[in-house]
Amino acid sequence: MSALLEVSDLRLQFGGVKAVDGLSFEVHAAEILAVIGPNGAGKTSAFNCISGFYLPTSGSVRFDGRNIVRPAPDFWHALRLVPLLQSFGFFRVLPSRVTKWGMARTFQNLRLFREMSVLDNVKTALHARLREGFWSTLLHTPGYRRAEEACVREARGWLDFVGYQGSEHLYVTQLPYGEQRRVEIARALATSPQLLLLDEPAAGLNFNEKQALMALIRRIRDLGVAVVLIEHDMGLVMKLAERIVVLNYGKEIADGTPEQIARDPLVIEAYLGVEEEAR
Amino acid sequence: MQLIWNGLIVGSFYALVALGYSMVYGIIKLLNFAHGDIYMLGAFVGFFTLSAFGISNETSIPLLLVILLLSMVTTGLIGVGIERVAYRPLRKSPRLAVLITAIGVSFTLEYGVRQIFGPNPEAFPIRLESSGFDVAGVRVTASQIVLVVIAAALMLVLAHIVERTRQGRAMRAIALDPQGAQLMGVNVNRVISIVFFIGSSLAGAAGVMAGAYYGSIDFLMGFIIGLKAFTAAVIGGIGNLYGAMLGGLLLGLLESFGSAWFGGEWRDVFAFAFLILFLTFKPTGLLGARVVERM
Amino acid sequence: MALRLDVALKDMSLRAPAPLFERQPQPRGVFTSQRGFMLALGLVSVLVIAVLPFLDASLYTMSIATSALIYIMLCMGLNVVVGYAGLLDLGYIAFFAVGAYVSGIFTTVLGWPMWAALPATVLACIIAGVIIGAPTLRLRSDYLAIVTLGFGEIIRITANNLEITGGPSGIHGIPSWDFGGWSFNDGFNLFGIEFPERVVFYYFVAAVVIVVGVIGAGRLAKGKLGRAWKAVRDDEDAAEAMGINTYIAKISAYIIGAVWAGMAGQLMATHLSAISPNSFQFLYSALILMAVVLGGMGSTPGVIIGALFVSLAPELLRDFAEWRYLIFGVLLVVVMLFRPAGLWPATAVLPWLKRNRPTPPAFTDSISSVEASVMESVDGVPHADVHEGDRS
């Protein structure tokens, strides 16, 4: 079975800093993979490369048989025009395109649309899937009404799925933090993904909320969606993940089941440090 | 050659105003829209003081220097006041809000001056119309030399402040990381005030010099020069002081040649087209650092 | 039902489970719902506009009212750019100028009828919008502001210098609208009531402004495009992550704004029958921005109030005419400092509805029990249509 997401030898450099340094892993359909590592290990940078926000220095990312990294021909490199052309959308895949292909993500610190209602936040995620043209919006044709109705239905379905119980007309800034997290996951799901990237979904949640989140992530997997999460809460990761990738200093140091990872000497060293280096 | 010399004169005005733009932008990422109007205020402060003493048609250079200092102090204080009243409460607000406020401030200054001094251009009391002489086929007047020397001196002083003093170090620290600087014990508000003071006084100095050079001032004179100075700051790389100086001089030269080739009425079009081209193809400017966009 | 709705969605590999919970229907009354009240308010405003000529059809009143309506159109266009998409445009008057000049040139130099110039105006504005937007919309918001300002000046200076635009004196004798022989100049006679030219034109402008300017922009803002604009305004990266091509979203907002301004420009050209570069100074860009900010960015009633204020204030406050720009400047700062959302914020809730406002969910302790109930209802049931019967 070919993998849904194949990351191979991914490298990302900011000036002299190697944020990601030769990362390779695979994600298969409907599995829960956790990416862990000490702070500054390059997890979020790797996520940003995979979802198209950062342009990796080298390496390849294939999602569902399509290349997300498109290297520019040497000709343009020689002319030093690559960054300019990339800013116009050449030699890169825009994050919006990646999302349309079926990869959704959430952000480390909540990035909801602050001046929109809960329902509108989720409806926005249906943008790419909605058949709704300029003229039909202006004229309110039956096609437009149908599209809006379908859109509201989908959005409500996802809000119920994640267990959001408040009013859908509230502004997201009025919600407590845990509820905002739920809405963000509902919003990501509404893009109809095959793969969901969650960047520290449990950060700032209390015990009950974490339990609810774990149940939710399992239910998302049961829908047939692969989930990749970055997380610091080891308890949660060990219980939830089917496979774990460990990063340190932008390098992958381990890849295996939770049991293997817990026993891996390199991982223990990265997290606890070896005797000599411990200060 | 004549074109180059003329370009340098105009360019040094642009550079002085652009410095203020660039400093303020570098430190709080605010595009101080009212900066051009500070330049206008500088000219009017000079005008007001001289008229109050009944001086007109004076040509003395020492008097010009005194007026210059006075205007610099006044506009500097006005700049600090503007920052305190209009920008500081909005420092955490969305960028759009601060920009709109800056436009409001600009309007207030322009039409406030209009209410006080009237809508018509005023003759600036000091005129530096001394006889010129030819150097290598270029017509040079003493006043031009004086202006260029003053501008160069001001820029040197500024470079010294930023590079060598404690406050300058604090400025550079805040530009890199305001929160980090605050944690290191830098009084951020104080430093921002100082930046506004320096930037505004430079613009005020440029205003007085422009008044003395062109001979007439009006309440809208800051608008176009503000735009041009911004262009200069962008060409040089906004946030970079040497970039602002370089950009100002370059823009002056470009305009001087542009108007010679295409006709004076297209001069402004030429400058703005350059701005748009630069922002499109090299938004970091000539000397600007490549900024990594972080999410 | 489900099938019919599916037509509206394309390649959804993953569909949401049907909603689990019944939603309470929203109230629809005039005083019990925001929507109903807004509709009623809109109807009343339309009535006021329709009745005005019967109260006072003098040349002065009609002229002022027509200008005010055109201002509303202009402000609604800028509202799309600034209010919805969050892009600060300081050269907005340039598009107004493009509209006015293109229609003026087509009707006077080429002798086309006014209605035939409309497609040309719209096209010219789209092109202008793309030319200025395409290279600059990738930039950060403050750069964009300055570039648009420069663009506005370029257009004005160009109009001032070119031969075809009549140089500094502009274009004179722009004809009114005529439709195969009958023109607005002929007036109109209905049931024995005489409608002179200015009243007919006033009604025409009112119809365009209400239908295209206000309702059209409002509808766009509520649909897919409008949600994309607001998403870009609130958080560009998150919008991109939601599958919105932010560049296209921004440029579409820009083009819509340009077209709205162009149509307003064409109306203004007809209204004044003469245009000159002086009417397109930066001052006016700032005034329109001021109207939008003062009224409330992104809020239709707010923007209309702002437009009326800015266009009528000089007429009502004759004695303060000298002072008005100073007052506007101070007002802009004060509004931004103390009421940044404007007089009628986009998120405003009618005061008497505040009581019924939904309360935010409590700070979760019972969440796990909720989760259990949700899971019960999902587990074991194919996640397609759980409550299909209830919802259709």
Taken in chain order, the helices and strands of chain A follow as EEEHEEHHHEHHHHEHEHEEHH
CATH superfamily of the largest domain in chain A: P-loop containing nucleotide triphosphate hydrolases
Choose one word for the global shape of chain B: globular
Mean of residue pLDDT values of chain A: 87
Q: Could you give the order of the helices and strands of chain B? A: HHHHEEEHHHHEHHH
Tell me the distance between the termini of chain A.
47 Å
How would you write the strand order of the largest sheet of chain A? 6-7-8-3-9-10
Q: Which fold name fills CATH's third level, the topology of the largest domain in chain A?
A: Rossmann fold
Radius of gyration of chain A equals: 20 Å
**Helix amount of chain A:** 25-40%
Membrane topology (chain C): Multi-pass membrane protein
Subcellular location (chain C): Cell membrane
Pfam families (chain C): BPD_transp_2
Transmembrane segments (chain C): 36-55, 61-85, 92-110, 116-134, 200-221, 251-270, 282-313, 325-346
Walk me through what this model shows.
The complex is a heterotrimer of chains A (279), B (295) and C (392). Chain A has helices at 43-50, 74-79, 82-87, 95-101, 118-124, 134-139, 142-161, 177-189, 207-222, 234-240, 258-263, 265-272; strands spanning 5-14, 17-27, 32-36, 58-63, 66-67, 103-105, 195-199, 226-230, 243-248, 251-256. Chain A has 279 residues and is α/β, with parallel strands linked by helices. Chain A folds into 2 domains: 1-102 and 194-279, 3-Layer(aba) Sandwich (Rossmann fold), CATH 3.40.50.300; 110-192, Rossmann fold, CATH 3.40.50. In chain A, helix 5 (118-124) packs parallel to helix 8 (177-189) and helix 7 crosses helix 8 (177-189). The mean pLDDT of chain A is 87. Chain B is mainly alpha-helical and 295 residues long. Chain B is 73% helix and 4% strand. Chain B contains 11 helices and 4 strands. Chain B has helices at residues 2-28, 35-52, 61-87, 95-117, 142-164, 166-176, 178-183, 188-214, 221-236, 241-262, 267-281; strands at residues 122-123, 132-135, 138-141, 216-217. In chain B, the strands form 2 sheets. Chain B has a two-stranded antiparallel ribbon. In chain B, a hairpin with a 2-residue loop joins strand 2 and strand 3. Mean pLDDT of chain B is 82; it is low at 291-295. By secondary structure, chain C is mainly alpha-helical. Chain C has a domain at 56-185 and 193-282. Chain C contains 15 helices and 4 strands. In chain C, a hairpin with a 2-residue loop joins strand 1 and strand 2. In chain C, helix 11 (282-295) crosses helix 12 (300-316). Classes of the chains: A alpha/beta (279), B mainly alpha (295), C mainly alpha (392). At the A-C interface, helix 4, helix 5, helix 6, helix 7 and helix 8 of A face helix 1, helix 7, helix 8, helix 9 and helix 14 of C. Chain B: Belongs to the binding-protein-dependent transport system permease family. LivHM subfamily. Chain B: Keywords: Amino-acid transport, Cell inner membrane, Cell membrane, Membrane, Transmembrane, Transmembrane helix, Transport. Chain B: The chain crosses the membrane at residues 12-31, 38-55, 61-82, 94-113, 142-162, 191-213, 219-238, 245-263, 269-292. Chain B: It is found in: Cell membrane. Chain B: InterPro entries: ABC_BtuC-like, ABC_transp_permease, BCAA_transport_permease.
